[in-house]
Fold each of these.
Amino acid sequence: MSDAKGRGSELPVNVKELLIRKALERRNKKTEPSTQGTGHLNAAADRLRRAIGGISENDCRFDRFPAYQRLKAQMLAVEKLRLTNPFFRVHDGTPGSRTVVDGRSCLNFASYDYLGLNGHPAVRKAAHEAIDRYGTSVSASRQVSGERPVQRDLEQTLAAIHGVDAALAFVSGHATNVTTIGNLFEPQDVVFHDALAHNSILDGIRLSGAHRVPFPHNDWEALDRKLAQLRGSHKRALVVIEGLYSMDGDIPDLPAFVDVKRRHRAFLMVDEAHSLGVLGSRGFGIAEHAGVDPKEVDIWMGTLSKTQAASGGYIAGERVLIDLLRVQASGFFYSVGIAPPMAAAALEALRVMQAEPERVARLQSNGRLFLDLARERGINTGKSRGYSVVPALVGSSIKTVRLANALFERGVVMQPVVHPAVEEGMARLRFFISSLHDEQQVRTAVTWLAEELSRVSA
Ligand SMILES: Cc1ncc(COP(=O)(O)O)c(C=O)c1O
């Protein structure tokens, strides 16, 4: 090693190169015979210097990332077409059936707060009390900084609502899917997912390294065929579906999916982000809606950001699954525990949901009314079942942005969905319904939508 030290002075002093040289040294030590001496180190450093010289400027600057180039092109197009950007608008106050944007009170059809519990006095109070008692953060993972009763109470309530043994709360709904799928499954496994699966499901599958197999939207027969083809050549199989699809407002045939997964000895995971609080007479989700025993589903997943008026996510299922995730899911084990005010808000929202099932009934009847009125006016609502999400399919992205802006001018906010979030030609305006809307608000929104739609098609 003294020889290597001596030769070290001939090698580059640049810190980055030095670090890489050390790494190469370590690697070469593992792979090359010790009799080789240190000439190979200098050769490796020469190769490295040549390689660095050949690195393109495009690969060293954020403004050369293709995604940034696409964003710039889109912004230019919006400017050229004199379109106002309908995204990232700033809201003031607590949004309910109305929201204040740019100082104007607008009808609000752009919130996932389907049960109108964000800002509910009891939910606010619970969050305040949790801050007073525990502070705003638990500052570290639950293994390190310990647990808080409110986190455990939330998990027990979620497990009881889902009719399973246990639940585990995470700090984000997106992270819940990524870490659960990503850390439970492995490259020898196969994961089947609905073609309209949320990005967090796809990111989780990518992290797992498992073979990813999409199947056509809600098509359990196609899934059955794909499982028959591929199940045998993989170790474990997972099927991931959602309780209610937020792009289209439709729902899967849960009993059929349960039957398929059972026949092929696969796990079934259901993401209830948009169906808890929305489906079933008590809002207990798609199992209640479909009359399926919740234990037939292996992994229940949900977010706390929608009907639970907080932020975070959870997994509910058999005790073994939850014990496994407590140590296996990096997004739980290496991430901070859910913040007390968020856990308390979600817990209280679940209590209100159970104490006031009329909220769920009102949401469902508002959704039905929106859908019926839209259909009467000849609006293309696709496959929506009208529970909490009703899309108006427009087609072109530019038309969709123009419509969103025109409706905003009239005083209603909703969510435009344009390319690349959907294929070009499939752009739409999405209306999220709330139990807080009254009949007149629903009628006004549909009337304005129909009027603006006929204006852009004229
Ligand atoms: C189906 C689905 N799963 C997961 C998530 C992620 O949840 P969160 O936004 O709470 O992180 C979303 C978000 O909208 C979703 O729609």
Amino acid sequence: MSRELSLSEIFQLGYYWETKILLTAVRLDLFTVLDGRKKTACEIAARIGAHEQTLSLLLNALVAIRLLSMEGGSYGNSSVAEKHLVRHSTQFIGHLLLLHDAEWENWGKLDQTIRTGRRSVDRHLFETDPELGSNVLAVLHRIGRQSGPEFAKRLQLIGGIRMLDLGGGAGTNAIAFCQVYPELAATVFDLPATLRLTEKTVKEAGLESRVSLLPGDFNQDPLGGPYDLVLMSDILHYQTFQTNEALVRKVAAHLSPGGRLVIKDRFLDETGTGPAWTTAFAVHILVNTQEGSCYKIADAVQWMTKAGFDSIIELEKTAVVQGVK
Ligand SMILES: C[S@@+](CC[C@H](N)C(=O)[O-])C[C@H]1O[C@@H](n2cnc3c(N)ncnc32)[C@H](O)[C@@H]1O
């Protein structure tokens, strides 16, 4: 059994001030203002249109957090802030933090949601702010590029596989699979607005001849094919159990005999109390989506079994499940 929390850890858990200070600094784009040159609070206030004295309090807290430095009354970025929090840096991750900040109000309604069982949002933020959605996908793409090829290798594919990356987003997995398997050709199916970003990432990877883009709504539109491999990565936790069941059945009809369906998601374990990150993610999905949920591997097994898949196995614990048509 894991050890009990200490009192100071409980205080630490409840202490979100620094979180909001960071998110606000990113929202005000302070790190970009300080790109490459130190400035006084007065200069920064003039640049962003802020009240100098109140801004100073925020800047001082950012110094204490070690995101900024201060010398002779001038503030400057730390090297990590310069690399990841300056907007035009190639390694900017601020869009992800802006998403967390945009979800702040929804988290404020958590108690209400728990009491009533009713969700407080009627649309996911990616629908109400598609530009933010696309920027977040671009950040996730940059992060996912590192793990994509290892995941592709673990599936041990052979020959000229025709792959469908369903709800493939920026094409992170399709690109990684093409890089690992030289004979594989991929189709990325996603909403038309998302595919504008995918077009860029595929071009950057020089894979236009092997990755095709298919726009549509995967619950409504035909998916093309037939395919030898369909990947559903991080799409099912936005939807209801019944919608997922229907989608898995639909996918089965687009696979060739012997073809594989691989579902990669954030599954909860049998007890629902682990993995720890996923239990918190399940609450995040509750407050920030209209009807999403975190599911268990047993749910995915049920969708696949009902759709007629065989040899269903949990390839990676609480992360990847595969079935064969
Ligand atoms: C969290 S992203 C996952 C992206 C990618 N599969 C990955 O693992 O990196 C979810 C993706 O599903 C797409 N999506 C959501 N609903 C969809 C729908 N009804 N039809 C097609 N794509 C959809 C979104 O546009 C987004 O690209």
Amino acid sequence: MFADPTGGRFPGRSQVGQPDADGAIRLTDSDAALARYSAVQKHYFNDPFIRPLLSRGAQYQPPRPPLINVGTYVRSEAIDSLVNEWLSLSQAEGKKCQIVSLGAGSDTRFWRIATGPQKDVLASYIELDFAENTTKKAMAIRKSRELSIPLGKPEDIKITHCGSALNSSVYHLVPADMRLPPADTLPPLLCPKGQPGILSPDLPTLLLFECVLSKSSTILGGVVYEMFGLNDSFGRVMLNNLKARNVDLPGVEPYPSFQSLPSRFLNRGFDASVALTLKQIRTTCISSEELQRISHLELLDELEELELVLQHYAITWGLKLYNRERGLNAAWNTWGLKPYHETREDEY
Ligand SMILES: C[S@@+](CC[C@H](N)C(=O)[O-])C[C@H]1O[C@@H](n2cnc3c(N)ncnc32)[C@H](O)[C@@H]1O
């Protein structure tokens, strides 16, 4: 049986001609949610919001192996760090910002921000996914006080589009198939008739593609978490396992090497882009205290295997700055994961 080695999160589109071709893609979200729940149960991090989003009975599944928990931890910490810094830079500039999570699935990031110290910096947080997944999430939000209270007053929470869309003052859940041209699908959802649009062109905007691949604001950032380098034996096994689940990886194929990853952004007019593998992030961006702490959580006897897996996953971030002439944007150039330790070349 297939197992996702860094937390059950796979992008992709299903293969044309398969029965319920998109079902396989949507199901990758259950893997992702279970992996997160497993890491929480093992105390890698705390997330009170994941449990109400699990499918029925999922909490009784056995925890994931240590290797997967460590992968989930490294990815989650790194993306949290990029998001938190985005919020801090917006705040330092006296602006609110907006975050759009594409293929958000059961992600809990909105709730973690909305109950944290930077909650007032968010102007809007938009999550997109297939209607089947957004319907499930809207229902879970309705049923759970933990999830609905951070959205604001009950009378300000509106569920529309046959239960698949949810709007509140800051949080918006939007059903959309991202393979379709956005101009056809998104305007009625993001700019409902007679109401102001949900997204402002004037605010720093961060796009998150966390294992999902399928203008403009003054400042636009993007974060992509994906596999790469799948032309070795590890990659071939991974691709075959995914094929067996009717999932392929359109977001991975065009970027086969580590060096090619920043071109995800640079070829689309972004000004700067940097990629780090999860292996690099684990060794350079996580503090020694944290590494010590997680090393005591579970027995991990296959360090080589962990590193082999982590070096096939990367987080790539890109930044596009407008209005440079106003001289407002220099601080944004510093946005990115910061090393705690110097790492030797051979550790990469
Ligand atoms: C592996 S899950 C990741 C969920 C979340 N980003 C996370 O990291 O926990 C991938 C998600 O992307 C969604 N997705 C993939 N392709 C999509 C498409 N074409 N349109 C809308 N959603 C899509 C899936 O339904 C699924 O919820």
Amino acid sequence: MHEFTCGHQECGSQFTSSDKDVLMRQVADHLKEAHNVQTATQTLLGYLETMCVKSVPNR
Ligand SMILES: [Zn+2]
């Protein structure tokens, strides 16, 4: 599983998915809805993937 934890101030939303592509799509949606980022660029998503996504064991 991959787990995303939003690093935005006081947000801390978490998503998990077994598919990283699905997870990053959820991240893009989250950025749009919660943080008013209309276009999540590949650069931004790549950065967030590095900083905010970690692998977690399946439960
Ligand atoms: Zn957030």
